Amino acid sequence: MKLDLSAGEDAVRELQMEAAPAAVNLVPPKGVEARFEHEIMVRVSVRRVGEEFFVHGEVATNAVFTCVRCLSEYPADLKADLEIIVHRVTAPQGQGPGADLESYVEVPLGASEFDLGPHAREALLLALPQTPHCTEACRGLCPHCGVDLNREPCRCPEQRNDPRWDALRTLLPVEN
Ligand SMILES: [Zn+2]
Ligand SMILES: [Zn+2]
Known about the structure:
- This protein is mainly beta.
- The chain has helices at 117-127, 157-161, 166-169; strands spanning 2-4, 13-19, 34-36, 40-49, 52-66, 73-89, 95-97, 103-108, 113-115.
- Helix content is 11%, strand content 38%.
């Protein structure tokens, strides 16, 4: 995912790049159940002003998450904005957040390319859901019998004896 820094100061360049998750070291952080199996797509426009390159666009992929409620796996798109200013300077100081929380990166004056990979990875990791769930309405698993409550109603007696259900039970017809 190399950005060519040798291009002149002309029109805005529209770039599209893709890479395998392994190529940018994209692995989910500890505690997040996700798998990355699809290409990572980066679409950016790049505008050069002097020695500054304004990179603006987005990064997207498709991930497989594990629902925290029902433990089923489901695929979902993952997208994030990519806003980076790459500045070529004589004495680079590294990087930090710039105005409006864009990434601001200084690179040596002679640099001819810039790797977007680490930034694409970081943006995707920040966009990961903390508690992935397959649907908003997912009812999860019964804590007693493990039945997937999305697929079938739970029949275990423990749940009927749960005192939290007492109020509800008074509203139901008596079972034989
Ligand atoms: Zn679920
Ligand atoms: Zn149950």
